[in-house]
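step 4 of 6: structure.
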Amino acid sequence: MTEEKTARPHRARPESLEALGFPGELPEDWQQRAVAALGRRVRKQPDLRFFLNACVKCGACNDACHAFLGTGDPGNRPVARQDLLRAVHRRHFTLAGRLFPKLVGALDLDEAMLERWYSYFHQCSECRRCATFCPFGIDTAEITMAARSILAEIGLGQKSVAEVIAKVHRTGNNLGLNPRALRHTLDSLEEDVREETGMDIRFPLDEAGADILLVTPSADFYSEPHVSGLIGYAKVLHAAGISWTLSSHASEAANFALFLGSDEHMRRIARRIQEAAEELGTSRLVFGECGHAWRVAYNFPALLGGDVPRPRHILDLTHELIGNGIIRLDPSRNAGMAVTLHDSCNVARGSGMGVHPGGQLDIPRAVLAAAVPRTVEMPAGTTGDRTFCCGGGGGLLTDEMMEIRIKGAAPRAAALRQAVEGSGATHMAAICAICKSQFSEVLPHHGFDRGMVVGIMQLVGRALVL
Amino acid sequence: MDVLVTAAFAFLLGGILLRMTVFLRRPQGRGVQPGLPIRGGRLGLVEALLFRRLWRDAPSLWLASMAFHGGLAALLLAHLNIAPHLLRAPGAAAMIGGLAWLLGRRLVLPAMRRISAPSDFLLLLLLLANALSGAAFLWLVPGEMSLLVHQGLGIVLFLVLPFSKLLHAPGIVLSPSRRVLHD
Amino acid sequence: MRYAYGDKSWPHDENGYLEHFESWDEDLAAVIAAAEDIILTPEHWEVLYFLRQYYADFEIAPAIRVLTKAVARRLGPEKGNEAHLRRLFPGGPAKQACKIAGLPRPTGCV
């Protein structure tokens, strides 16, 4: 493949694709292989077939995508992105497309089309905002996942996603953190918290028999402000007197196989968590702040089958502990803060939380409101089920995609500016490791301080009365 | 001619049933395909009849769509001899007006032109031709010839409809991204 | 994809991270730093040596907090914070400092 102007992530190296069971290079017969893979995918997945068939080209989604709004590139319109796969599907799997390709917009999968697939299916963050505008609920994320999985099957993988998936299989987390390094990091955090609170608050690792297995994105062991969120979890669980543990076998909540659209790898990564829970004999699974991880976790029963219970979100647990008075928060410890919530796309549109419909929107807000003196909302249509993606989801969080990431964050930045100028917001809270990293890095390009990005559990940790 | 029309209509019904298999097959347990949680109720019959979401997001498109579909419904009833004198004129006006608007925006708006295939225009033209030929038969040039043209266009429509995007009503109610909502 | 200095050269990946941790030396650090518009001062070197020592020990870059704590111990508490590290490495202590120190790029949601 040749370089050209549209944005694209680096290609995965042959060895990292082969480690995942994909061909390392583009095979000679890549066209036939790709079409066959598309056929298999459509047969296996009736919803994909529906999405490829149901579009009437009404244009309701035209202005729904943050990537389009930020780049102004018509190729980033949701329907344009979908049509890259739809046109090929039409050409090979519909009568009209076989007989009159030009008439119905059916196209061959040639090299130029392959280029466009690789570029545009990697500019989609799989956030599903467009699907809420579509009268038929056509889900571009599913189309993107299908296309990426087909690309992988012909040896065209995205470098960072392929490497991360292989790393999880090998080490248990996206970072590649080994158990000794993880323990060392946790020891250092225990020391920090002791200095701050004067109390021995533990960060247990691999402790058999604990009540809760906490699974959190490995960014929580590494980045800022993520680590502060991890400290928040530990403080809350300590204050509530709940026995808990982390696992070195399942030291990652994130599941990048979702981004690749690979059910097999998604299941393998999810199963690690199940294995860790069984090995440690924990009775409950709780997930930390990670958007797409929560989408996958919320679907554990369907994904892993059997009687696997649905994990719980740390915010849901915290909400309950606040509600029944087991822990107490003092918002004045976050004095001066007016915080607005960035709903993470995979939480808002890909899951639920607690027992009530809409809990994934209400519970984070309730916990946030208990932790800070004042909360404000960004404009309607940019939050809740209409939330804008941070611009870094779906595997886009890489250096070479920086320009797209900055532009993709523009709609969120504009909404944030309104909350800052109109309602005096001082901070924006996120509940996803990708959102936190992405915003910390790109908001400065939109005139904001990186320090205004916080996590809800970070604020809870600060407000908690110990 | 009547036999042909009837045969084409039977083809239409058969085609719709065949296509319904696409819409009705349930997504298998892929796990990570939860519904899209929509505040203020989920999609259903009300949505199918009122296009409420379109109203919220694209009011002008909603208006054109309502005019066209409402006119179409009125004319279907009129064809079944239900209050034809009451329904024909407003039905035809609404349908032709709605179609003209839909065609116009597809032609004029660059964003719409870009996402349109030739078939997107042709299908609108086919519907428009059906409506205009019917109106011509009723009010402008009544007679055998006009009726034949209208019936001929009707047959083409019946043959095309089940295998084109014109069959999209089931998708509104049966969209998989709604059906998997909270298990 | 290689960095070159004199008759030496070092392969790096698509994002400019060194392929082989062991092949790093001070000349290379200066080359990478120059490419990143950074002039290395003694404070930079403290950070770079700590990163290399930590990686040699744990096969992973230290968490930002662990790094700032180490910097506080070596350069004084007023310098042991992310803001100071960011003044040294505007591209971020995680990515830019790791790159110059010859560590691989931290992966995942970071």
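step 5 of 6: annotate
 - The first strand of chain C starts at residue 2 and ends at 5.
 - Chains C and B do not touch (no CB pair under 8 Å).
step 6 of 6: archive
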